[in-house]
Design brief:
Helices cover 75% and strands 0% of the residues. The protein has 465 residues and is mostly helical. Helix 20 crosses helix 21. The longest helix is centred in the first third of the chain and has 17 residues.
Length: 465
């Protein structure tokens, strides 16, 4: 470092540039070396040169600033403290697209750490210049500028609003069908970082007429484009039933379900969550997910995915779909999801979050479920805190359905209920009593444990005439 620093002031321009490039590569390598660049007092020198030197040197100097800023908020703050932002803003106004790109990249790396650094970037007047950069013909510059807008917008509603106020949405919306995959990744990322903060900005994103065109990109060959589109749809649908309805009307649910079928692993997460958010809003929207075969696709995801956070999201989505009415619960029950949710809840290997979500989803769907064939297996496996919800459902359905009453006896369900040991006066005992009251007393006695011994005793004590 100490040998490179004087070379930044060399009389020969190529030596200056090469020295800056070498420093940038060192700083890029790890945070200790980036720290050394800061401690070596090299940044003020670079910032000074950014204003004075030729375009090749400017690119190299911006590269060093970016390499230092990327590692941590503290290092990014050091870059800001030495006055780099003003110099980078000047570079964004340069004629040379390469210099603009290098400056935008450094700004992006400063803004991504936290809201405070992002605010510093905004205060330097960067956002309108980045919006101009998106409109330049060079693809590489467009990419980096969109990425920087995404990094600024993500931290808070106020910062997102700043980006929106400069008219960024309309310019981003024009690029959603650009053939360049890396550009599309950044555009969808920026739109979703804007849309996530509030209903108002999400509505503005939808009003930019990016649908249904964006849905085509759920089939994009590039995995990250697909994931970012799914994330954007998730961030829009989570806000209100009205926004969800707009997406549903454009075929968004069916498109996301197809997307889940074509994807594996973490790429699925935003799609799974989007279905959960849509279904959470209302009965009709949950029905839209069911009609589009969302439940069977989610069941496949639950089967295939190994990671707990993906299983937890899928489980949560089932809870949102099934908790509305008996019809919704039946759709979840028919997909044979109950035993899987129960296993996840009881499995000691499951993460705490997964266990909590599995229990909650089971409870909320069971409380609506009147489809008895799916409930019956749970009589044999569920622990008492889940079992009480199962028996409660039987106590609601059996009084009104003679066929179900008969089936419950022949399948062994009634016998199983008699074997359950419940505290007198507990909720579960009340439900058991309600089930028993649907049958003649001698039937209930016949299926109670110990009945055969009682009969044998009576034979022994019987005196024939």
């Amino acid at each position: 470092m100490s040998l490179l620093r004087p070379l930044l002031l060399d009389a020969v321009p190529t030596i200056q540039q090469t020295a800056a490039l070498a420093l940038g590569r060192l700083a890029n390598y790890n945070d200790d070396l980036a720290e050394a660049v800061v401690k070596g007092d090299i940044l003020p020198q670079l910032v000074y040169s950014l204003a004075e030197q030729n375009r090749f040197y400017k690119k190299a100097a911006a590269f060093v600033l970016r390499a230092v800023a990327k590692h941590s908020p503290e290092l990014a703050q050091a870059v800001v403290d030495c006055g780099a932002l003003d110099a980078l803003v000047v570079s964004l106004e340069e004629f040379d697209p390469g210099v603009k790109e290098a400056a935008a990249w450094a700004i992006s790396y400063i803004a991504r750490h936290n809201a405070q650094l992002s605010q510093a970037v905004v205060d330097a007047g960067v956002v309108p210049l980045l919006v101009l950069c998106i409109q330049e013909p060079e693809i590489a510059l467009k990419r980096v500028a969109a990425s920087a807008l995404s990094d600024i917008a993500k931290h808070s509603p106020e910062l997102a609003q700043t980006v929106v106020d400069t008219g960024a949405i309309a310019h981003l919306a024009q690029m959603i069908l650009n053939p360049d995959a890396k550009l599309k990744r950044q555009v969808f990322s920026a739109l979703s970082q804007i849309a996530k903060h509030s209903v108002e900005v999400a509505e503005m994103v939808v009003e930019a007429e990016i649908f249904p065109a964006s849905l085509v990109c759920l089939k994009d060959p590039d995995e990250y484009v697909r994931k970012n589109v799914a994330t954007l749809i998730r961030e829009i649908t989570k806000h209100t039933p009205e926004l969800s309805q707009i997406i549903v009307n454009m075929g968004g649910v069916a498109a996301v379900i197809d997307y889940l079928g074509d994807s594996k692993g973490n790429v699925r997460l935003p799609g799974i969550m989007m279905l959960g958010y849509v279904a959470a809003h209302s009965e009709n929207l949950a029905m839209a997910v069911i009609v589009s075969k969302g439940v069977s696709q989610l069941a496949i995801c639950l089967e295939e995915e190994q990671e707990d956070h993906l299983k937890a999201a899928t489980t949560w989505a089932f809870g949102q779909i099934g908790r509305h009415t008996p019809e919704h619960a039946r759709a979840v029950a028919v997909a044979n999801v109950f035993p899987k949710l129960l296993n996840l809840y009881l499995d000691t290997e499951s993460s705490e979050d997964l266990q909590v979500k599995a229990k909650k989803a089971l409870k909320s769907v069971l409380q609506k479920c009147t489809y008895l064939p799916a409930l019956e297996p749970l009589l044999y496996e569920a622990p008492s805190n889940i079992l009480k919800h199962v028996i409660c459902q039987f106590s609601k359905v059996l009084p009104h359905d003679s066929k179900a009453r008969r089936l419950f006896v022949t399948s062994g369900g009634l016998k199983k209920v008699q074997e359950i040991k419940a505290e007198p006066g507990s909720a579960i005992q009340e439900y058991i009593n309600a089930v028993n009251s649907c049958y003649p007393e001698e039937i209930v006695r016949y299926y109670s444990p110990g009945y055969s011994e009682t009969l044998l005793e009576r034979i022994e004590n019987y005196q024939p005439v």
